[in-house]
Amino acid sequence: MNNKTPNNPSTHLLEAMLYALNDPALDRDEYEQRLANDPVLGESVAEAVVLLQGIQAVSGPHTKPMVTIAVSSSDQRTPVAFWPWSISIAASIALIACVGWRFFVFERNNHNQLANVQSANVQLANVVNAWSDLQQLDGLDNAEDAKLRSVGLESELSPGTEEVLDEDVPDWLISASIATVTVSIGEAIQ
Amino acid sequence: MSERPLDPETVADCNREFKGLLERYAWAIVRDWSLASDAVQNCFVALAQFGGDVAPEARKSWLFKVVHREALRIRSSEIRYKQSVHDAGAVRETQAIYEVTPLESLAKKEQIAGLGKRIEALSNEQQQVLKLRIFEDRTFAEIAEQLQIPLGTALSRMRLALDRLRANEPEEDHEQ
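Predict the joint structure of the above. Result:
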């Protein structure tokens, strides 16, 4: 197609579409010379690009690009900063460590408490048996029996039997996690 | 060229009215939305600095001419830059991410649906040419060869298709 084409909007739009599509059927250099002197042609080009955009939109976002981009600014692309990602990963690891630590301590406490209760039961049974034997031998009355039993229990039971192990996530780990997550969120917002 | 600055309000009005149109025009020249945006931005800077003496009825033409010149300048600069990068052996990134076309101005679903209906209303021959050219990125010469028709016929089908597609084109919204 050349500059002898009829001067009507229909032809203008076809030429503009050929230009927008970068089709070799149009002499691109010659057309650009005409564009420089005729803004009406420029409007046709803009209209052709609008139609191309619309047709692409109709075709959906997953279709192949309708035109090949000849020139791109890919080489001017700003590189993605590395450290925000590393902070995010560190924050995730810290959170996982907190949860894992808590779970581990919880399980260990349960296990220790169960062992202590079992141990206390055994000791209690031994004490009761021993006092039953004493009562039979000495003939103590019920009041004295109860008093002695309580005293005996206090002395027999080990000091840590009813102690609940209060090992939890260390403060430094919580603080580090919170600080890291806060920084990470702040960077993500920025 | 005039050297009297244009008042900011008028520049802003021109920006609202013509920016979308000019960006699409610039895109057709540089074939990159980021560069097209740069060209249009430079154009409005020039309008603000030197557009004071441009008659209001001539502003649109003036803007098209400036964008045209600016887009060509940016394209030449980009080609030289890429050539230098290529000569230096630098690794180029994929450009696929930049092939996503911004559709802010035409993203209204009603318009897109309307265009879809108009495409469906095209004749089979016109749809065929449209599909091969736009969706499959064949040149018209290839299409003509594939369909065993003259090149002029393929172009004529495309012209008729475009006429019908824009026949009911709603008034363009320049605001993006």
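Residues 13 and 44 of chain A are 5 Å apart (CA to CA).
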